[in-house]
Amino acid sequence: MQQIYAKQEVCIACRLCEVYCAASHAEGRDLVRAWRGKGARPIPRIKVEENRPFAAAIQCRHCEEPACVYACVSGAMRRLADGTVQSDPDRCVGCWTCVLACPYGAISRSGGEKPTAVKCDLCAGLAVPACVANCPNGALEMVKTDKTHGLRGGVAG
Question: What's the sign of the alpha-carbon dihedral 146, 147, 151, 155?
């Protein structure tokens, strides 16, 4: 499986990962229209945590033993065969137990009339997640993981 790895030593807390993540999950995936469109603004699935001089992006780790999945009362959070943990907004009842259970704080509440849990989906449908593709400093990269031993082997191609 591949996972996003954040390198805090080169993160400058520009938050472009948040902007591009939100835009990639907006209707039409257009950067400008995502903020000027009607309705609720899109929610980024990645958050930059900052404690100067350090900063790093936080996103779902797609855990092998996902606490969010075990806590989800509706079955909206589930671990797929490819190893990713995905959220189904149609099944989400808005109880927020997944938010409480996530040890990384990587699940957020969406806006709109029926708020649902949102989290990193590794930009399903894109070759490279938007946050990784648009990080100006290369602070985010895709790496191959060996779930039994953690991150392995550098950038995945």
Answer: positive
